[in-house]
Specification:
- The complex is a heterodimer of chains A (about 240) and B (about 350).
- With about 240 residues, chain A is α+β, with helices and mostly antiparallel strands.
- In chain A, about 25% of the residues lie in helices and about 30% in strands.
- Chain A has five helices and 13 strands.
- In chain A, strand 2 and strand 3 form a beta hairpin.
- The chains are: A alpha+beta (about 240), B alpha+beta (about 350).
- At the A-B interface, strand 1, strand 2 and strand 3 of A face strand 15, strand 19 and helix 5 of B.
Chain lengths: ~240, ~350
């Protein structure tokens, strides 16, 4: 479907699920691999892939044909690699401004909240809102809590929050209404870094609880440029 | 080697074509809102068109040149003066160290572009000099210009100055009829609402910035369905939130949005749309994808033509020098021509063979 005179929208099944979103990223990746001249942006979202193009280089019908070819190829590709990036988080009340409220709201202990929040990797559906802000899926519904009625005017970069059944991490200072439960010492967004954002949509994030002491140590490593990302790849046979 | 900012104006930033290919990471492109004025301003100072320039919104700034160079202003009329003397837009000016450019409130539009020979020399962030003030990257320290800022540029060789100018009426049409194509969620609106969107006028409210322009008019409420899952946004997409008032998404927009997009402004009319003033009224008009792309193609041809015209205007606008006239006379004498006329702003030349009556005046 055309979206204006320089973009096409590819729409998949109308639902938010890792299965549908996986198809979006597969097609997005395939299009990028083809290095088709004239494509300027490939933007994956929950169930859509928006492809922007230069109509002086590539016509609408040519692009539609490329995308149709790609969609057919994908049906045959089934290998699944799960890329997981570990993000250390200090769930201390100093950083977790709303941790007490969450404890009250859920009836769990702080330890239980942390255990549930770090129990499994979260799937990155898409990036947006802020540069690199991950829209994550898969959080344990028992630690869900509505947004703040009055959003804060400033939330610090690195803050990890909960909004309803969603969880996410602020990649830069921003106003926001998420319930803040902790903070990561790592810098997720740095425009001057070769890789400004260390993950892509379609990959996974695993939060790991760290102490205040470790928080300070990692922060220091980050400032020296010595911090190494902890990544893991799991190959699933189907 | 800097442009000193005495007064930054209302919202002045360094912009270029923008950051392309990063939307998937959550970055909108940024870049000049009025791309036509940007290109023309650069061409007028002899640049290719990709050089970083200033975008002034609403009220222009005041600047001091510390090295000789040349500059041009395009877009909305900001009543500019150079050393307190009024100057024109769509014309290049040579300046020396100590010259002062002052711009005031913009009269017939929202944006004035100032280009300088060689472009402003700021560090590129992710391949672009464009400022994105919301995420504080690019341009000059990721923000609007403030008094005391010094923006680097390269000095020009004064001997290579060539006059170039254009008639503004030709290149600043400011359409009030803004052509749009159907948006991806237009089917969520009732047919009545779709009709209403192009029947009524919409007025640009005071809520506008580089993320989007908010228009006011007959509310676009009637929906068949309200449900929508957030998806990627495009430049010129017209979102309709629950209050029914359309918002045109622009260069610093968020890369994902969850409001239904009723229409998308055609690329060809985006410069006209962004040049509307707060309080001015536009009319939207449905066109097909083919019509939109055809109009864009025609515009590109016009712009290419214009670029050539600016290049060619170099010789014709430069006063003829004695040696050039001598060359012309010799060429005329060696040719089979009987008569030869040449005129421009500064020179009138008439050469006639056989009666020794060649003359010229300047």
């Amino acid at each position: 479907m055309p979206i204006g005179d320089q973009a096409i929208g590819v729409y998949f099944q109308e639902e938010i699920s890792p299965q549908v979103n996986h198809q979006v990223h597969q097609l997005g990746k395939w299009i990028k691999q083809q290095q088709i001249e004239g494509i300027t942006e490939v933007i994956p979202a929950y169930r859509t892939l928006t492809v922007a193009y230069n109509p002086f280089v590539l016509s609408y019908s040519e692009l539609v044909k490329e995308i149709e070819d790609g969609s057919q190829q994908l049906e045959r590709r089934e290998e699944k690699i799960q890329k997981i990036l570990e993000i250390p988080v200090c769930y201390d009340e100093e950083y977790g401004l709303d941790l007490k409220d969450l404890v009250r709201h859920t009836g769990f202990s702080i330890e239980e909240v942390i255990a549930r929040h770090t129990s499994k990797p979260y799937y990155i559906y898409m990036l947006g809102f802020l540069p690199g802000f991950p829209y994550l899926g898969g959080m344990d519904a028992s630690i869900a809590m509505p947004r703040l009625a009055n959003p804060r005017t400033q939330i610090e970069a690195g803050s990890v929050g909960i909004a309803g059944a969603q969880t996410g991490v602020y990649t830069m200072n921003s106003p926001g209404g998420w319930r803040i439960i902790g903070k990561t010492p790592v810098t997720l967004f740095d425009a001057n870094r070769e890789e400004p954002i260390p993950y892509l949509a379609g990959e996974w994030i695993q939060f790991r609880a760290i102490s205040k002491k470790t928080f300070v140590e990692i922060k220091e490593e980050v400032s020296r440029g010595a911090y190494k990302w902890k990544r893991k790849e799991i190959i699933h046979d189907t | 080697m800097t442009l000193k900012v005495i007064n930054g104006g209302l919202h002045t930033t360094i912009q270029d074509h923008g950051r392309i290919g990063l939307s998937q990471l959550g970055f909108a492109s940024s870049g000049m809102l009025d791309i036509d004025s940007y290109l023309i301003a650069n061409w007028l100072v002899g640049n290719h068109g990709e050089e970083a320039a200033l975008e002034m919104i609403g009220i222009g700034g005041e600047f001091l040149f510390t090295e000789p160079t040349q500059f041009s202003l395009t877009g909305a009329d900001c009543s500019p003066t150079l050393n307190k003397k009024p100057i024109d837009l769509y014309k290049n000016y040579q300046v020396k160290a100590g010259d002062k450019l002052q711009c005031g409130s913009l009269r017939d539009g929202m944006i004035t572009v100032m280009a300088i020979y060689g472009g402003f020399r700021v560090d590129k962030v992710m391949d672009s000099a464009s400022t994105h003030t919301k995420i504080q990257i690019g341009g000059f320290q990721g923000r609007t210009l403030q008094p005391g800022d010094q923006i680097p540029y390269s000095p020009t060789d004064e001997h290579h100055f060539l006059h170039r100018s254009l008639k503004k009426e030709k290149v600043y049409p400011q359409r009030k009829m803004i052509r749009v194509t159907r948006g991806p969620q237009s089917s969520l609106f009732t047919e009545d609402t779709i009709q209403q969107f192009t029947k009524n006028n919409y007025t640009l409210s005071s809520k506008f910035d580089r993320m989007g322009y908010r228009f006011e008019g007959e509310g676009l409420y009637q929906r068949i369905n309200n449900d929508m899952i957030s998806e990627g946004t495009v430049l010129g997409g017209i979102q309709v939130p629950s209050d029914g008032q359309p918002i045109v998404l622009l260069n610093d927009r968020q890369t994902a949005g969850g409001y239904p997009v009723i229409a998308v402004v055609t690329s060809v009319d985006l410069p006209s749309l962004v040049q509307q003033k707060s309080g001015s009224t536009v009319h939207f008009q449905w066109v097909s994808l083919e019509e939109a792309q055809q109009a864009l193609k025609e515009k590109k041809e016009r712009m290419n033509h214009l670029k050539e015209g600016i290049k060619n205007s170099e010789q014709w606008q430069e006063p003829l020098k004695e040696e050039k006239i001598g060359k012309l006379i010799r060429a005329f004498e060696g040719s089979s021509l009987k008569q030869f006329y040449y005129t421009d702003d500064k020179t009138r030349l008439k050469l006639v063979k056989g009666d020794n009556n060649s003359d010229y005046n300047r």
